[in-house]
Amino acid sequence: MPEPKTELEYGGDPFRLLVAVILSAQCTDKRVNMITPALFDAFPTPQSLAAATEEQVYELIKSCSYPNNKTKSLLGMARKLIDEFGGEVPSDIDSLLQLPGVGRKTANVILSVVWNEAAMAVDTHVFRVSERIGLTTNSKNPRQTEETLIKYLPKEVVAKAHHWLILHGRYVCKARRPDCLNCALTSFCRHFTGR
Questions:
Q1: Which CATH code, of 1.10.287.3510, 3.20.20.140, 1.10.1670.10, 3.40.50.20, is assigned to 124-193?
Q2: Predicted model pTM
Q3: In the annotation, is 5 catalytic?
Q4: Residue pLDDT, tens place only, 39-52
C-alpha cells in the first residue's frame, strides 16, 4: 500500500479532520463517517460549532460512543480554537494538546495527516501490530511504542507508517485472529516466525 491514508472522510479540511478524530475515540471510522456529514452541514466551521448548544451537537453525534463527553469536547475545542488560535487548527503538538478532547494520539494524527509531520499516532491497532510483528518489544504503553517507532523508522515514512500499521491491524493482523495466510509480512513477523 504505497499511499495509505486515513479512512475518515473530512474533505481535506483540518478542522473537520480534528472533529472526526475526536469522534473516533472508542468508535469506528465507519460510524464516524456516518455521523459527520450532518454535523458538518450544521456546523461547517469552528465559529459555527463554537456557537452551538450542547443539545444541538449531542443530537447529531448521539450514535457514537460517549456522546456526552464528546459533545463537551467538541464545543470546548471549537471555542478554544476561536479564542486562542484565531479559528485555525494549530500545527504544533503543544498547542494541539491544549484543545479539549485532544490527547497525544489525536494531536499526532493531525500533525501527520494535515501537516505531513513525522508524528506517530498510536492507537490500539498500532500498539498491537507493532508489538506482534516485532517493531517494538515489551512496550508498556502507547507512548513507549511511539518513541520506539519514531526512533527506528526513517523520518520520511513515519506519517505513512501510522496508516500502514492501522490498516494492517484492521484488515489483516486483527486482534483476535490475525490472518497470517494472507499477510505479506510473515517472513519477518515475530508472531508468525516465533523469533
A1: 1.10.1670.10
A2: 0.91
A3: no
A4: 999 999 999 999 99
